[in-house]
Amino acid sequence: THVCQNPSASPHGKGPAKLAPCSALHSDARSLARVVQAHRDLSSSSRDLGTALQVEGARMTQSDTLTNSLIAACCGVGLLFALAQFWLVSKVSVKQSGSSASTSLTAQPLDEGKEYMLEWVSQEIANGAKSFLRAEYRICLIFILVFGLIIFSLISWGQDSTLEGGLTALAFVLGATTSMASGYIGMMVAVFGNVRTTVAAQRGLALSNGGVSMTPNGWTFAFNTAFRSGSVMGFALSSLGLLVLLGLLLVYRTIYEEAEWPIMMEIISGYGLGGSSIAMFGRVGGGIYTKAADVGADLVGKVENAIPEDDPRNPATIADNVGDNVGDVAGMGADLFGSFAESTCAALVLASQCADLNAAGWGALLFPMLVSASGLVVCLVCSFLATTVSPVRNASGVETNLKVQLISTTVLMLPVVYFLAVSFLPAKFEIEGIRDDTLHATNLYSFYCVASGTVGGLIIGLVTEYYTSFSYSPTQEVSESCQTGAATNIIYGLALGYKSAIVPVIVLAVIIWTSFTLCDLYGVALAAVGMLSTLATGLTIDGYGPVCDNAGGIAEMAELQPEVREVTDTLDAAGNTTAAIGKGFAIGSAALVSLALYGAFVVRLNVTSDVDIFTPTIFSFLLIGSMLPYWFSAMTMKSVGLAAMQMVQEVQRQFRENPRLLDASTPDRPDYDACIRISTEASLKEMIAPAALVMLTPLIAGTLFGVQAVFGLLSGGLVSGVQMAISMSNSGGAWDNAKKYIEQDPNARAEKHRYLGVKGEKAHKAAVVGDTVGDPFKDTSGPALNILMKLSAIISLVFAEYFLAINGGHGLIAMMFK
Predict the structure, then answer these.
(1) Predicted model pTM
(2) 437 or 419: which carries more pLDDT confidence?
């Protein structure tokens, strides 16, 4: 919004002259920068008269040094905590002789053969994961180089400044490389912690009443090992991402004067684009990898030959366990890093457009980053509830403990955010609204916006848990439907997914209405930051799930006692539910981030009056945008299907050529590497087309048809994508847990469900089919839709000036017709 001095705005001489819209000013960020400086000059004059606005009373209440130091200190604490957690995990030695007395809990030591198998299997999983990431990151590095040059060229041309083009490209490169580094660190820690979780579960067993059972200390030991492995990724990624962004801002601040902060923040948005771009490759590529192996292993192993899951005779089992790490750890980590980077960049861009927030100083401008930094400390404190204050002592405590993490971090964040809002934001400030009216906001309004996102995220997570956990009726009904076959199982699962979107969408609507009413689009961006304020805990729980899943697979392949697998399955079942909760957070935050980025794009172009749904171009591209999630999902689902077909054929070939593999006592081992190669090659090949669809669509639309086409495209993609993502993710999660419910000991199920039978019977086979169909729903297509919504919006924001430079924002087609 562009403003000029309006002397008549203060007819009684009380307070400084206000700022009003003025079409005479040129519509670019430099005009706004000059106006911000003018606003400061006017405010200074008013102070001389003793009639300053309240914002001036709060001006610079916190120094720049305090703001920077607080953010950096929180990041440093987060990184140190991640190192401490890694050290604690490393103390769990795979070899019995190397374990400390405090962890030697078992009366059944492992023999050398089993110790060798534990090390061998975990090393194979680690090597497979490293091999995939090396191949994927080679492609990513080429992409970073090429797309970085495109950013430099187009932005330099659009803004007539090679400096701004170069700095935006640098921010993009840093965002991309930080995302890659974070994903790699998380995955390496996950493959380091998986075998140690297996060992912890085995050492927690003790002889009792002539049998073997898990001791309370054993439950604590196994859970803490897995939880701490996940927390290394959670705290390292969150701290590293925030610290790099702070460093980038401080460097760019030496280049741009205070009056040019709006320009600087627009350039910083390249950081979010870099993080989200790598998330697209990580989420889609990793999702195709893991689900191709998972589907292949299930169809040929469990369905055709009745081989238990993760049996060492199954050629696809190593690839399946590798996929858990590259998809659910590296992929999810990159996804949520992208959400964090984009929400923060959107909030910074919108804050820099507000003259009062600029006048209030650096601390007010960086309020969103202060919220994220304080979230690290809150998550750190609450993590001790899980590991020390109230540790897991039995099977029923696992899911409760993880849920307490989500609730406690949300509750504790609220007073912290209130303190930050009162301390760093002006008591009152004006926002030039997107609807051409001035909005009078306060620091309390800002707190309400952040709180709505934080609490709303928790509500979405708990609703997701209700629909995907086998502790509640929706998933139990899906299990019951398996009695009549796979078809009814699929029907029930789809219906559950559609129904599960109702409450989350209503919650998102309430958040958007509340935050937009209070603080306009800046409020929506703050709500997104609030939903991601407990990112470290969310990532910890997301990392915990694959670690437990791998731990069970390693126990199966190393042929440890069945009780070990029962423990890891209990840990994993809770991880599945909390992973679904994490996906709910990710989808909700993606919707808010996408809207905030869309708003920043519109505000940056200063064309709010032209955003009318009844404009032919906007309405036409609204339909096209709402179609994109279906096109994108079709591509990713088909990619999983094609790769799974190759995997099935390879597994069948190995069983056909070596029938001894089907013998339970065979010493033969299959060719695991062949299946790993199939997943790797298929995922790297198939991830290109979906990524190109998401990244090129807004560029082509804006270049050919102008900014109005981009408006419609982003609106349609957001409205359609968020509901499709929720329904797909929850259907897949319900199918997975419906299968696990049937696999439980019948005595552990509710009495009315004991008739469902056990593994290998009719209901279980139908449940396996549903789980197999749901794999790409919940781990590939559904979560990747988050990135479709965010990446389209951040690309539009970064290339806004380029679009505007083409025929005044009307595109090449209009120029040709003219």
Answers:
(1) 0.85
(2) 419
